[in-house]
Design goal:
Strand 11 and strand 12 (242-244) form a beta hairpin. The radius of gyration is 20 Å and the shape is globular. The longest helix has 22 residues, at 109-130. By secondary structure, it is of the alpha+beta class. The protein contains eleven helices and 20 strands. It folds into two domains: 4-163, Thermophilic metalloprotease-like (3-Layer(aba) Sandwich); 166-369, no CATH class. The strands form four sheets. An eight-stranded antiparallel sheet has the order 14-13-10-6-5-18-19-20. A five-stranded parallel sheet has the order 2-1-3-4-8, with helices on both faces. This is Aminopeptidase. Belongs to the peptidase M29 family. One of its GO terms (molecular function) is aminopeptidase activity. Pfam families: Peptidase_M29.
Length: 371
């Protein structure tokens, strides 16, 4: 008998997140997922609404081997084939599992850069900008270990987070979107952080279960050259299979002029991938009431209640500051009291203190009102 939580999960993804319509093509990529039941649930839901499912099964260890040996010609051909397929899709779902989040940690930096720039970025750009897409993780023992829980407890947490009422969250986000859309100056203050930038005339986008699962953020982008100050992140972050902690960025006129961490050399190699990697492509505010602590998984960590993330690299075209890069690195700063506290100011008005929204019109986004 199917796990009813899994059935609800697949139904929400197909009917709410991507709003699949009859006759539409959807590519469903299952990455590192060994349980066929999830694929069956998705297929049944797609057929139920009259769509056309295309299923792709991928393995992270095989992808690592591909990265290690692929020539530019190989990656160009792979990109051509997959880009053409993506152009035929109206919707896209990716469910990512895998037993090892650092599977690509020993892939040389030049191989990672080649893979990202020649293959990954062109295909991702087509998917992000021209399909109805949603990306998510799926619970397994590795994720439970990162969250310091048992596998069973993590599964319960996962379905609680992923099957919440995202339509309620969507409505609650509207006042924040409206405020951000009329805001010019932003200031972030936390221990080791004092950062200012403008978001004037760059749209604010609410993320409420229609792009990521779990979800719960409102994002925009800083005006490209407006960022000045220092930001000290207080969560670990994994990028290209390498774990980084104690990340500190100093920015002048939009550019990261100094970057340190527990692995400063590797971090700067990533930031030197291309010119855009040292500029910021996204500023976002996290509000998911069920996600309280980091677990080295971006899709969860960037939604943490009382957090922000400030992202070196590529901007989204829907909230565009013109920055282009093969890097998009979401790094999280939590501003709740147990993580040192912090403040967000819009045009010299305090809007959130220690992770709690203080303006009356935004209090619907506080955790007690979203559960």
């Amino acid at each position: 008998m199917r796990d009813p939580r899994m059935v609800t999960f697949a139904r929400n993804i197909i009917r709410y997140s991507v709003e699949l319509k009859a006759g539409e093509n959807i590519l469903i990529e299952l990455i590192g997922i060994k349980d066929p039941e999830l694929a069956k649930c998705f297929i049944e839901e797609v057929y139920a609404v009259g769509g056309n499912p295309i299923i792709e099964l991928r393995d992270p260890a095989i992808n690592r081997s591909m990265m290690l040996g692929a020539t530019r010609q190989t990656l160009e051909k792979k990109a051509e084939l997959e880009l053409n397929r993506m152009k035929e899709m109206q919707a896209y779902v990716a469910v990512r599992g895998g037993d090892n989040v650092t599977e690509t940690a020993d892939v040389p930096e030049d191989r990672l850069k080649l893979y990202m720039s020649v293959y990954s970025r062109p295909v991702t750009n087509q998917r992000v900008n021209h399909t109805k897409w949603v990306v998510m993780r799926y619970p397994n023992g590795s994720m439970a270990q990162l969250a310091n829980t048992s596998t069973e407890a993590f599964e319960d947490f996962y379905f609680q987070v992923c099957n919440l009422d995202y339509s309620k969250m969507e409505e609650a986000m509207e006042p924040l979107v409206e405020l951000m859309n009329r805001t010019d100056k932003v200031r972030l203050v936390s221990p080791g952080t004092d950062l200012t930038f403008s978001i004037k005339d760059i749209p604010a986008i609410k993320c409420c279960g229609k792009r990521n699962i779990p979800d719960g953020e409102v994002y925009t982008a800083p005006v490209l050259n407006s960022v000045n100050g220092v930001i000290s992140y207080n969560t670990p972050t994994v990028y290209s299979g390498t774990s980084f902690e104690n990340v500190v960025l100093k920015l002048e006129n939009g550019k990261i002029v100094e970057a340190t961490s527990n692995n400063t050399a590797r971090m700067n190699d990533i930031l030197d991938t291309d010119e855009g990697a040292r500029y910021i492509g996204e500023f976002a505010i996290g509000v998911n009431p069920y996600i309280q602590h980091p677990m080295k998984d971006t899709l969860f960590d960037e939604k943490i209640d009382g957090s922000i993330h400030f992202t070196p690299g590529q901007a989204y075209e829907i909230a565009d500051n013109s920055n282009r890069s093969s890097v998009h690195w979401d790094i999280v700063l939590i501003q709740r009291p147990e993580y040192g506290g912090g403040e967000i100011w819009f045009d010299d008005v305090l809007i959130r203190k220690d992770g709690i929204f203080v303006l009356p019109e935004l209090q619907c986004l506080n955790p007690e009102n979203l559960k």
